[in-house]
Task: inverse folding
């Protein structure tokens, strides 16, 4: 049993245009102290998959089936009051938008202390002292000064560090980071990633890192799940994934990296590769390979049935009838 | 913060001075000659001229203005041209009545409007929301005078629960005072409550879908803290702004309501003074209204700054 086990997770939303299939039959697991990357383009279901764990999806329109177990405890059916004990304490979240995720009307000290007082039963003063320590932990200078400040007085990178301080305040088992560096400058990104790595090393926190940036994946993740159109396309330890990508979609993503374009051409340069075509509409869920229309190695059998995840190595799975031959370089 | 308040107060004084000039000129631009009204239809030209001289109406306008300002600041608002009573005395008698009416109406409006707005936003698209928005629409579209007449018809004439009109000072008969104030308060407060309800609802709806509310939920906070602390605090700025802006409507609503319920307040005084071209009273009434407006807006600005750290702190750093 892993720390977190997601089995056959299917999530849909009732919208005015019909039922949107956001996540389909996704299964994944997370070990203690592991950094797992969920990657894919916008709308591939990576955020919905992760937000299903703390149940932060809109309750009235979300249709969720499957199982999510934290330490063997089923979260999908946990009553809401107990679920509130899990949120912020055992599973916490760092959101994508540092500029708007903090409440503009309260000091950052209050917003950090709030979660401590909720879950750790700390007094006002003790929570405040702990908030200072946490700001120090995430690398904010002059923390005793900073806790009295309001979010608008801090830069984006600082705010993201405050968000991380809130998320790790109660030493969660699982930390979900949703594109934590996307809104930040490149120089700030590295610092924030260091904070995550440091937290994992010091507290043993398992991290689900949602990102579309394969550079971030290579930098920090232990294992990666590549998602496409609501399903897992490929799943492998990061080193193996970059050395031997099997799914044509993964291969396409890697060819689309600027670094790949620079390295490959004879003169050192060539046009950046792209994946032709469009992501299929999430309103339909046909029984064929969702990537078929855009796939360079697609054949007739891809239309006849949907490929399921097949094991190609000890921890390497891919959902493709015609995976790239090993040795094919991205 | 102190600097912010001082700056606001300075601006308020300037607005008041400009207001006093406009009031002074506006009253003089009204058609009709007050000396003629006072002297009566068949008065001799000599009597009219004497009255003009007595009230200083024959002097140049700037001289009249400076004299007016000097007298006003020393608390002398002149005498009513109708009954020769000092205007200050009349105001002292009428103003508390209207203050009580508007304060009670505001209390009702804020309590009902803000609570209903929060409930409607939280229960969006469900029965409670439809009931609240339905009443809100009714409150906005029904005019005071009609609602007042309906209320009198129902509660005073048919049910005989409450007196239809009149006024007793609170200090003389508290129960009688509140009995008589209940209907006017509800009639005046209803429209105001509707405006506040709609504004609170839309402010709460946008706050509830904000990222920081999602953050609050991700901390495992109970819904009452998510709604009552995180969302409400950010909606209050809107509510306070609307409160200040709508005060004008409340004052004009008080004029109408006082006419319907025959309450001897400020509104009735205003109407009577305009009909008789009672310059000193008109000037004083408008001046009090302008002052009330300026003071309320000053208070709104200060409360707003308290609620919104971005305003409060920018005021400090630029000072």
Result:
């Amino acid at each position: 049993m892993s720390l977190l086990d997601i089995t056959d997770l299917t999530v849909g939303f009732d919208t005015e245009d019909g039922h949107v299939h956001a996540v389909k039959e996704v299964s994944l697991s997370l070990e203690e102290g592991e950094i797992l990357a969920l990657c894919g383009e916008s709308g591939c279901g990576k955020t919905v998959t992760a937000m299903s764990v703390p149940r932060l999806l809109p309750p009235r329109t979300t249709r969720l089936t499957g199982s999510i177990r934290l330490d063997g405890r089923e979260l999908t059916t946990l009553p809401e009051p107990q679920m509130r004990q899990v949120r912020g304490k055992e599973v916490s979240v760092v959101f994508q938008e540092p500029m708007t995720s903090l409440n503009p009307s309260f000091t950052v000290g209050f917003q950090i202390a709030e979660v401590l007082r909720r879950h750790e039963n700390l007094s006002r003063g003790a929570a405040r002292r702990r908030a200072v320590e946490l700001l120090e932990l995430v690398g904010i200078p002059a923390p005793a000064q900073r806790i009295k400040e309001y979010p608008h007085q801090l830069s984006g990178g600082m705010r993201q560090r405050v968000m991380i301080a809130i998320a790790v305040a109660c030493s969660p088992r699982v930390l979900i980071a949703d594109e934590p560096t996307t809104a930040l400058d490149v120089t700030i990104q590295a610092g924030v990633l260091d904070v995550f790595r440091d937290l994992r090393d010091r507290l043993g926190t398992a991290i689900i890192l949602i990102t579309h940036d394969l550079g971030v994946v290579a930098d920090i993740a232990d294992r990666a799940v590549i998602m496409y159109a609501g399903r897992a396309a490929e799943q492998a330890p990061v080193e193996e994934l970059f050395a031997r990508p099997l799914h044509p979609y993964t291969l396409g993503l890697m060819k689309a990296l600027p670094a790949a374009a620079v390295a490959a051409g004879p003169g050192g340069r060539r046009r950046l590769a792209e994946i032709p075509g469009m992501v299929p509409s999430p309103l339909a869920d046909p029984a064929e390979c969702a990537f078929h229309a855009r796939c360079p190695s697609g054949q007739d059998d891809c239309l006849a049935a949907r490929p399921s995840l097949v094991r190609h190595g000890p921890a390497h799975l891919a959902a493709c009838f015609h995976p790239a031959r090993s040795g094919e370089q991205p | 913060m102190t600097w912010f308040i001082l700056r606001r107060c300075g601006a308020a004084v300037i607005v008041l001075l400009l207001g006093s000039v406009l009031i002074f000129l506006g009253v003089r631009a009204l058609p009709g000659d007050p000396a003629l009204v006072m002297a009566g239809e068949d008065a001799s030209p000599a009597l009219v001229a004497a009255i003009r001289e007595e009230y200083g109406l024959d002097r140049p306008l700037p001289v009249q203005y400076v004299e007016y300002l000097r007298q006003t600041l020393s608390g002398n608002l002149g005498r009513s041209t109708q009954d020769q009573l000092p205007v200050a005395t009349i105001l002292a008698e009428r103003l508390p009545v209207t203050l009580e009416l508007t304060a009670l109406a505001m209390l009702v409006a804020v309590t009902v409007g803000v609570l209903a707005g929060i409930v409607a936003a939280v229960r969006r698209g469900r029965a409670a929301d439809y009931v609240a928005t339905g009443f809100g629409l009714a409150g906005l579209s029904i005019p005071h005078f009609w609602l007042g007449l309906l209320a009198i018809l129902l509660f005073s004439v048919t049910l005989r629960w409450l007196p239809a009109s009149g006024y007793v000072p609170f200090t003389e008969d508290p129960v009688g005072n509140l009995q008589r104030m209940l209907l006017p308060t509800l009639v005046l407060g209803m429209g105001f409550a509707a405006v506040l309800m709609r504004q609170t609802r839309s402010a709460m709806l946008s706050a509830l879908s904000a990222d920081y509310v999602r953050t609050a939920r991700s901390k495992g906070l109970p819904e009452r803290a998510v709604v009552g602390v995180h969302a409400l605090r950010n909606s209050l700025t809107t509510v306070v702004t609307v409160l200040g802006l709508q005060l004008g409507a409340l004052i004009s609503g008080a004029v109408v309501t006082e006419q319907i319920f025959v309450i001897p307040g400020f509104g009735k005084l205003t109407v009577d003074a305009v009909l008789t071209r009672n310059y000193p009273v008109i000037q004083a009434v408008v001046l009090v209204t302008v002052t009330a407006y300026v003071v309320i807006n000053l208070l709104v600005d200060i409360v707003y700054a308290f609620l919104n750290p971005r305003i409060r702190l920018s005021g400090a750093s630029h000072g």
Notes: Chain A has a mean pLDDT of 89. The two ends of chain A are 34 Å apart (CA to CA).
